[in-house]
Amino acid sequence: MLKQQARTVAAALYAADLASTLGSLAGAYVLRSELLPRLFPKAFPTGLYPFSYYLVLAGPIVLIWTVLLFGWKAYRSRRTSGLKSEVALLLRIAAAGTVLLTLVVFGARWDFISRPFLVIFAALNWVVLVFERLLVRLVARWVRSRGFNYRTVVLVGDTPRARSMARLIRDHPWWGLKLLGVVRERPSTSPEGTTADGLPVLGTLADFQTIVSSLPIDEVILAVDRGDLESLEDVFLTCEEMGIQTRLVLDFFPHVLARVSLDEFEGTPLLTFSTTPHDAPSLVAKRVIDVAGAIVLGLLYLPALGIAALLIRASSRGPALFRQTRCGLNGRPFTLWKLRTMVDGAHEKLLDVAHLNVHAGPVFKAPNDPRVTMVGRLIRRFSLDEAPQFWNVLVGEMSLVGPRPPIPEEVARYERWQRRRLSMKPGLTGLWQVSGRSDIPDFDEWMALDLAYIDNWSLGLDLKILARTVPAVLKGDGAR
Question: Rounded to two decimals, what is the model's pTM?
């Protein structure tokens, strides 16, 4: 019954989301064709094609938004999640959907579609979807405050984590969870009437089957100590047999940065702690951008690479290309390609220039490294020496955005907390590069920027870094 209600609510929300999105299509047209030209006539001139032309977008919108809404699990129960996470999810859907819609427009050569219209549609769609979900939350909160749409809950365990869970439920009445009482692990010498927090004691684990058979229970939350986990097998089996949803509080292992998710290996459930992103659709999109960007930018850079290679060969002895072993994802070694900007055999002269190092820590950076050739300085000025790494991106050893790949000698000197920098695929550009590149002398600050990128990663952050990389490269900010 409850599952059927959940499916009905999800179907209603899906219909509302599609209606809101298609309504945003009409609203964006009105804004672009009527309101904005009156307010900003120079920026938004009139002359759009009739709205009937724009209706061609309805089909792709329904298809794209359906895939994104279900792919990013927009209809899972959000009874206990905050509005902030839902707002962020809807922003991601509106942005990604509009990017895909724009690709459809370009691919189909629908030149009659206004480009500013697509931006207006994205913004309006996000606002409308957020307003719709906010309205749903307000209605749900009002209904639950009247004693409807609630789920009855029994806590198993008279422990600090059980009491913490009880307080959490009591402090959030709009979740619509009604605590019926507590089932203790074993008989207690204290009075059986209530717990220290005033919750009714329904009995012990020995009485569990009788308790769940005599009460209307929707959920059982297990909040026992680690040593009592083995005693819960009968509880799980009883709840499974009776169709009662079971949750297990698993805060046994302290974690500050790790994201927690539930995975499955051939039916065996696994609790996963990870400090790196595991948003599959976004990671797939990141890889698509990597491949497309590596191909397009590689072809654009090809003439300049050819000229630079000729200048390198003409001005100094040695090959035009330089290859070096670097550490990739989780320390995997790979061969990184660059244009040679130093004299041939420069690595053999490292000890001669060690005193010029301006960095604390394992990395070597010298502002006026005498091993760099005159042509090499010009090539470095615009980061042209890094262009061969588009090949590394194309074959999957690197990404367009990520921490820069270190050499094994540097990694060998890392402190333990610094090795987390290797937990994400290295990139051509990153927060460190657009924040001054070699102008940041403090190695710990460099590490902090890379870790901040990993901890806060999103597709939007990648796009922002790519956008900031262009002026940084053109101006040569911090290049050496």
Answer: 0.62
